[in-house]
Fold this sequence. Notes:
Elements: H1 34-37, H2 44-71, H3 80-103, H4 113-131
Helix pairs in contact: 2-3, 2-4, 3-4
Amino acid sequence: MLTAPAAVKRPCAPLGLPITSGRNRGPGICRAPHFQTGAMPDVPVADLIITVIQLYIYVLIAAAVLSWLVAFGIVNRYNKVVNGIGRFCYALTEPALRPIRRVVPLIGGVDLSPLVLILLLWLVQREIALYLPF
């Protein structure tokens, strides 16, 4: 009669993670908690929230770069494509940037509110990755 093999102990890397051939075959024997290794948890809701925040950060960066390109005259803001992209970025980022702009003043004519918002979003991402209970 054939029986299922017993749990095979795998050698561990220095951080307590199992050494595999690059393919995840389930939880290892010597798996360390995610907050000790810096890896994100395997929770679908947390992954979705973190992905949405990361996409929003990309939109913030695109809006800032586009505003610089328009300010320096590199792109024409009357172009339909540029205007569409600009309106899309403005509609997504302005509701979050407006309260920050009331608090953070312009420094040398430079708006630092996107930078402040990106740092806050990174902090939220880290807190979700480290302490989300579900």
